[in-house]
Amino acid sequence: MQYVTDDTIVALSSAPGPAARCVIRLSGPQTAHLIAQVFLPAASAAPDKPTLPRRWTRLIDRIRLAGTISCPAHLYVFPAPHSYTGQDMAELHLPGSPALAELVLESLVQAGARPAQPGEFTARAFFHGRLDLAQAEAVAAVVSARTDAELRSARRLLNGALGDHCRSISDDLAEALAEIEADLDFSDQDLDPLHADALACRLAHPARQLDALLAAGISWSDLRRLPRVVLAGPINAGKSSLANALLGFDRSLVDALAGTTRDVLTAPLTLEHGECLLTDTAGLGPLADPLAHASQALARQAIAAADLILWVVDAADHRTRNQLTADLDQGRGLASPHQTLLVANKADLCGDLPARIREIETLAGKTVMPVSALYDNNLYPLRRRITEALNLPETHSAAEAIALTIRQRQGLEAARLHLQQAILLLGSAPPAAPPAHSTTQAESGGYELVSLELRSALDQLGTITGQVAPEAILARIFSRFCIGK
To answer: Of the four, 13, 42, 347, 414, which is 20 to 30 A from 480 by CA?
Structure first.
């Protein structure tokens, strides 16, 4: 795809369909002229030469179309060179009628604008130096983020984290390359001799940086998979009440009638260091209606797919010791080999809670966490236990590190390979080269190979930031964007 950046593009920037508001975005040298065709206060010095304010501005007035159609509108002006695209930009915020948006777009196109291609606004931001290529890819990642971890990682990339790492490594490689090429180009000058071992030591630092970046880098697919936490246990243990209390809203229907929950209900649960999917299931045990078998089969399927099981029992249950033992044994059988936390709900209804907890712990052979879903008692420690059991501090750290696309990982791995080869070549060179003016042809050829490897490593890093960006790569990246972004 051949990108054109000297015309003016327009697109619907908000999601299509009815809404409270829609946003139409323009970028390019004719932005002021086009806005004057549809927005009433032609913010212009002269009618034939409309201009936009030269600072960020919001204007409130009306849209006019075909001389008869008029409606309230806000105009946001973003002048060059400090706009998102680096060009004059404007956004029209209108009532969210699809028909109205279509009429405005049609009027702007008839006045001379070109409909934008997918990702073309962000492509212009890249071409005008407002974003590097890794940041441009992060824009699409922000738009498509489905989890909190994805959004945090995308925002880190958008802030330039990956580009900063690559530029730091590139600076070190460029300095070493300049030293080598100065010696090669001015071999008749009285320069300091190159020391291969010292140069290799200098290159070890960017090599370690690359290794660390690749080791800490995680894939976007890893971020998209949230761990599953399943609430399971006997009938009427208060699992649905506990699910609602942990989530902070009523996701599950709650009633005093035993066996209220029949389906598997799932919602994202935000924890201190990340997210998980919390699943409420039907109670396990005898039920005297035809739906019991189906609902409990779904519960067992959810348990089998869990990363962590919260096995919930009733702390105030006055059934026999044998019945409690049977509930705990059932939990051990179903939860194995899954990680399990044992939770005693309804602690507020238990007369002698310490004695009851000791009894449950003796029968279960493991620690029990007493909670009250009704009064939110002990829910914060339970959330901490869930975070620790899922190893979410590490997940959080990963999201705070760098999430890499396949293209970015391949570029980093190729750069590392070329850098390792350069270090190997230096290792096979004489420990200390003779003075530059007397370097032999064979030794000079060795350093030329090192120079080529360093140049290749720099080129690979350049593909990540966009300093080396073939048209095919750019087209593939920006084609994945929404129109209007």
So the answer is: 414
